[in-house]
Structure formats: C-alpha cells, structure tokens
C-alpha cells in the first residue's frame, strides 16, 4: 500500500509576527519628542550590543578551518555579494512602474545583506545536505558581511537620497565594527559564558532588534513616510521579491550542478546562497538609513518570511528525493525542530 505523504507545513515565523506587531505598535503609538530621543539612544546601544554578541559568539577559528572546502564557500559568497547585488541593480528598471524609489532602495539593500546562519543549517539538515559546510558558509558570510555589506551600501546607495552618507561610514565603524571586533577579542574569556547562556542572550538579540524596528518605524510614522506607500506598490514589491527568490534558487541549484558539485554540496549552496539575514540586516539598516530605515527594512522583512516558506517546501522535497537516501541522514534535532528563524551569527 502506497504510503501517503505528510502535507508540508509552511512555517510562520513567530518572530516575524512579533516584528509585525512592533510595526503596528509604532504605527499606533510612535515615539515622539523626548521619548523619540530616548528610543534612538537605546536603539544605538542595542545595535552595538548586538554586534558585540555576534563577535563573542562567532568562532573565527572554526570558520577558517572550513577553508578546506573553499570552492563551496567562494560560490556561496559570490551568490550573496555578487549575483544578488547585480540582480538588485537590474531591478532599477522597475522604478517607477512597479516600485517607488524608496522601496527600490530597500530592495537593493536586501540584496547586499549577508546570508543566514541558523536557517541555512536547519534546511540543509532537513534536506540531507552538507551540514558542516553550511555552518562554515553561514559563518563566512556573516563575517564578510560585517565589512562588505556597509561598503557595498555606501557605493551603490550613497549617491541617492535617503541612502548612506559619509557620516554613515563613521557610524559603521563605531556601532558595528568596533563592537564586533571587541567581541572577537574578548571571546577567549567570555565565549564560555556566551555559550552557556545562549538562550537568554538570544532573547537579548531579538529584543534589541525589536527596539531597532520600533525606533525606525516610529520615525517613519512621525515623518509621514507611510502615506507614500500604496497597497498596489506593496503588491508590486511582493511580486518582484518572489521573482528574485525564484531566480536565486534556480541559479544556486543549477549553477552548482554546472560547477560539478555533489548533491549534498548543491543543497548547501542553494540554501546558503539564496537567503538573506533579517537579524544582520535590520540593525545595519538602522545605522545606514537613519530616519529612512522603516521603508528600507520592509523589503527585507517580507523577503525573510517568503524565503522561509519556500525553502521549507524545497527542503522537505529534497529529503524525499530517492537520491537523498544515499547521503548521510539528517540531524534528528534539526529535523525535529528546524527553528528556521535566523538569530544572527553563531559559532559552529
């Protein structure tokens, strides 16, 4: 008797629900006056704390140990920081037909953000891909993105209104790079503490991001930015993002096949090379865009949920592929609880 397949459940990320709730709170009760100043100061401190914890959590040595599989990592980095931005630049022709200029800026910014760590590992494991390579690829992308994403944003967005300015480079160094490097330097002393309390610190990570989102969207509401976005424009953004995700999923899979990677490595390349990190992108946008961050992060928030839902279906189908029976079994923990929410860089 033929066994019936279990229906694929699309993951609705609880954290995205919290993010949307935070957006709603900012829309109804935006921070004004003194409250806005306090919120902005707290948001700045939260971003610095986020990147300090990223530095303390990320094991550079373990990431460098993965250089033995350098072809895979170069391929993932090329997808993340080369092909994605090229597609983002190509979408410039959709302004103003489908996208407004601010929404296009947000779309281009999302193409510059590093890949995820946790969700790439989870879906690679479910699909029976190369999990160790996924860990290293995610770590490499996060490490490179600390420097490359702000620089690409300064080059590609610096010439247009609302994009990064020269002052942003100073903020990048002070709010992103310095805390991250401090975390890396202090990792040998505090790494054990961070590992033992990673669950509690995970709440600190996510709470900090919620604060950044509230501050950014409050500024947008106070300045009347949201009156410039119509439902038709949002629909156009969703269509463009769906096409972008589909193109990247196809390119990563068939491109890796053309480069003669094995099945397990192709799975890793597809999931690590087609994703964008919400946890890394939101605080970066807060630093780079300031008062314009609310529209800049909207495309990233929508893309994040879209990639989770689509990749959940793909991962399950890859796991049911007869060819997957020849590869190593997926991790039981990851399969049972994939936790596709990206919580930022973590050690392997």
From TrEMBL:
Lineage, highest ranks first: Bacteria, Bacillati, Actinomycetota, Actinomycetes, Kitasatosporales
Protein name: Bile acid:sodium symporter
Gene3D superfamilies named among the record's database cross-references: 1.20.1530.20
Transmembrane helix keyword on record: yes
Alphabetic keyword roster: Membrane, Transmembrane, Transmembrane helix
Regions that span the bilayer: 12-32, 38-58, 70-91, 103-123, 135-157, 169-186, 207-226, 232-256, 277-302
CC terms in the record's Gene Ontology section: plasma membrane
Ranges where the record places region Disordered: 322-348
Species for this entry: Streptomyces lasalocidi (Streptomyces lasaliensis)
UniProt superkingdom: Bacteria
Alphabetized PANTHER family for the sequence: SODIUM_BILE ACID COTRANSPORTER 7, SOLUTE CARRIER FAMILY 10 MEMBER 7
Signal sequence bounds: none
């Amino acid at each position: 008797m033929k066994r019936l397949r279990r229906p694929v459940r699309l993951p609705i990320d609880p954290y995205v629900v919290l993010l949307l709730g935070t957006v709603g709170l900012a829309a109804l009760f935006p921070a004004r006056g003194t409250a806005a100043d306090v919120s902005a100061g707290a948001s700045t401190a939260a971003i610095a704390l986020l990147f300090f914890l990223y530095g303390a959590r990320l094991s550079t040595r373990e990431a460098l140990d993965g250089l033995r599989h350098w072809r895979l990592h170069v391929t993932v980095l090329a997808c993340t920081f080369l092909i994605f931005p090229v597609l983002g630049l190509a979408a410039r022709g959709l302004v103003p037909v489908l996208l407004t200029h601010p929404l296009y800026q947000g779309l281009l910014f999302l193409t510059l953000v590093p890949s995820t760590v946790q969700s790439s590992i989870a879906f690679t494991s479910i699909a029976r891909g190369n999990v160790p390579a996924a860990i290293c690829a995610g770590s490499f992308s996060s490490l490179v993105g600390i420097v490359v994403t702000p620089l690409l944003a300064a080059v590609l967005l610096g010439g247009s209104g609302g994009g990064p300015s020269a002052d942003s480079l100073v903020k990048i160094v002070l709010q992103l790079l310095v805390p991250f490097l401090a975390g890396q330097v202090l990792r040998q002393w505090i790494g054990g503490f961070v590992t033992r309390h990673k669950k509690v610190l995970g709440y600190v990570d996510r709470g900090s991001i919620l604060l950044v989102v509230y501050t950014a969207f409050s500024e947008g509401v106070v300045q009347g930015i949201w009156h410039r976005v119509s439902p038709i424009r949002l629909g156009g953004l969703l269509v463009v993002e769906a096409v972008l995700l589909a193109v990247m999923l196809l390119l990563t899979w068939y491109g890796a096949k053309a480069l003669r990677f094995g099945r397990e490595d192709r799975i890793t390349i597809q999931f690590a090379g087609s994703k964008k990190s919400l946890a890394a992108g939101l605080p970066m946008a807060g630093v780079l865009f300031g008062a314009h961050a609310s529209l800049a992060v909207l495309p990233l928030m929508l893309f994040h949920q879209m990639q989770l839902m689509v990749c959940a279906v793909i991962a399950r189908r890859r796991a049911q592929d007869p060819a997957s029976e020849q590869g190593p079994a997926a991790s039981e923990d990851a399969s049972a609880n994939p936790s596709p929410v990206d919580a930022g860089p973590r050690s392997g």
